[in-house]
Amino acid sequence: MAEAFIVAATRTAGGRRNGRLAGWHPADLAAQVLDALVARTGADPALVEDVILGCVGQAGEQSTNIARNAVLASRLPESVPGTSIDRQCGSSQQALHFAAQAVMSGSMDVVIAAGVESMTRVPMGTPGILAAKAGLGTYMSPAMQQRYPGIQFSQFTGAEQIAKNYNLSKEQLDAFALLSHQRAIAATQGGHFKDEILPVAVRMADGTEPGEQHLADEGIRYEATLASIAAVKLIAEGGRCTAASASQICDGASGVMVVNERGLKALGVKPLARIHHMSVLGHDPVIMLEAPIPATQRALKKAGMSISDIDLFEVNEAFAPIPLAWLQATGADPARLNVHGGAIALGHPLGASGTKLMTTLVHALGTHGKRYGLQTMCEGGGMANVTIIERL
């Protein structure tokens, strides 16, 4: 079987809600990434055989197959198709898996996996909210309600339950949140994001364009202190999580180009990394966010590796209890986790986060001269993708 290689990876810097990317139509923002991937490889755009794009809020401006709309907004020819993926927060990580599977099978040679989310223009939960307002029912079918009687699936409840189950105090969550900002600040000031961030024009929510380029993640709190983080109100009375120890609402787009050996030859480029392993696992949908732990354990077993074989980890910081519980359960070295910060500081643009984290992981392996990287993230419904890559 052929192998899958990443030959280009890029992302926009994250934009706060109503911030520096709020004026971008999400299809146009995703198109910027598609064009950049082609430009970075020098590829003939017609060689791209598919665009697989993750997006969670597929309503309004992100409806009607936003992947194809992004292609039509880009410089790619009309011959390039597109399909939109929703595996919740892991949507574009799953897009990467589908792209890798396509080139490994030999049915395609060059595929772009990408993701986009404008959480300003299509707020979180919009599809369900619109359906409810129109009297179109809920995603909770009668059979689901019978299987889970009286259960309201909630990521907030899940995060609190994980904090309780792993005996994680509010003080530990706050300290981890501060570390996320500190690492993101160090990476930004050290120029570690320079090669991965795609400059795009600033477009504000009111339509103004100040003539600047958006070059740095807008959510980083340079002034953050443990005291300021600790002072943020709890999400739930008697809980441990706050907005400060949770991922930031974010606008952004990201993507990677994936090829096989024939694709490498056609493009005439050297690979950045090889896909070493990819898998996905379903787990408890009530706790919901714990799936990265068993998913990582199973992935390492399937890959014939141990946790110590992995040089760098990207575990999405949906809520601070997730990576902290993951560290506790896997025994991973905390110094190897989210070394350039995570979603608490950099933002979590839902459907774009999968290839966003992969972009950061690929570049971080190069920056630090490391070999193996592992990415995983919790996903709505109690799932988790795991991807292991080898830097080349």
From TrEMBL:
CDD domains: thiolase. GO terms for molecular function: acetyl-CoA C-acyltransferase activity. Residues 270-391 form the Thiolase C-terminal domain. PROSITE patterns: THIOLASE_2. Residues 5-261 form the Thiolase N-terminal domain. Keywords: Acyltransferase, Transferase. The active site is at C89, H348, C378. PANTHER family: ACETYL-COA C-ACYLTRANSFERASE (PTHR43365:SF1), BLR7806 PROTEIN (PTHR43365). NCBIfam families: AcCoA-C-Actrans, PRK06504.1. Belongs to the thiolase-like superfamily. Thiolase family. This is Acetyl-CoA C-acetyltransferase.
